[in-house]
Amino acid sequence: xxxxxxxxxxxxxxxxxxxxxxxxxxxxxxxxxxxxxxxxxxxxxxxxxxxxxxxxxxxxxxxxxxxxxxxxxxxxxxxxxxxxxxxxxxxxxxxxxxxxxxxxxxxxxxxxxxxxxxxxxxxxxxxxxxxxxxxxxxxxxxxxxxxxxxxxxxxxxxxxxxxxxxxxxxxxxxxxxxxxxxxxxxxxxxxxxxxxxxxxxxxxxxxxxxxxxxxxxxxxxxxxxxxxxxxxxxxxxxxxxxxxxxxxxxxxxxxxxxxxxxxxxxxxxxxxxxxxxxxxxxxxxxxxxxxxxxxxxxxxxxxxxxxxxxxxxxxxxxxxxxxxxxxxxxxxxxxxxxxxxxxxxxxxxxxxxxxxxxxxxxxxxxxxxxxxxxxxxxxxxxxxxxxxxxxxxxxxxxxxxxxxxxxxxxxxxxxxxxxxxxxxxxxxxxxxxxx
Length: 435
What we know:
47% helix, single chain, 13 strands, eight-stranded parallel barrel, TIM Barrel
């Protein structure tokens, strides 16, 4: 996120009654302003003046390596990144869900958007749209909500494609884990129990909401109604997204830019679900272009994030224009544990005991998950030798993992905007080392 992080606070002693804490020889009272050195963790009382890192200023395009203000470190960073760019084979894209992220990533050297997570566009204030959609009582209500969502999606797509004009933008269709959008069943149950205990009247709406959330509640929401499954149950939702994408494409072209959208279907596991949804999307794209002077087909690919998808990639590849590996979910499903759960429970202990050599969510597990990737790459390239393959999981910005992706012959890695320079550097190093 581009924020300095101070991780660990072993030396802090908190006195809640006195509303203060001590850190070494420093005592800090509630309300005091302090500054923290993100490198050393040292605390300073008051506000300490700071200056932007010259390297950061260079990477973000505010300082030229040829200017008089450029330090020797800046000139060295410029030389090594420029050299890496001449050597690397992997393209470096970014994961971006907002125009601001896309602009920042392009300045940092990104060559397109490898993952635009459209469900992130409906968090925060927009969360109610997905909630209303999933809890809709009938198709008429669903269509009404989708109609409200469409102009919002269109505006989002316009901004991102303008920021990435002439570069590819991979739009992943909605993949919302329902627990992130629906009211908590535990909280609703407590509210209902309290109302009943106090003999309070419960509105018809609250009763309907409670019944719907109970019906849709999943013991493991990461393995339930997500991705392509949601698109098949509510096809109008994905049709709205590609319709908004077509209108955004036309608008961006009209403004003089060169939009290059790609559509990615998430969580596909079977050939039939991919074919079924692809036919629906292609028809909607064609119908939306009707009446315009433009005929355009958008590349439609699949996100490989289940083990079954990886080992049947030759079947999926018949109906996909590209694959992008979602290594976050692929790691969870291969190891049979959830990142959100294990990183705060047994994984630290496993690392301490060296039962696992590293956190598999930070660096790719080549011996396990890597075999699935290798299998999928081999199967896809048997269909077409130039089958486009990328990776858009968090591993796309990890130096160690990038070397493995390079050895697999992937076409690109995609990572968060702030990791783009690292990915550029490591992609170059991977080629130099392998040669």
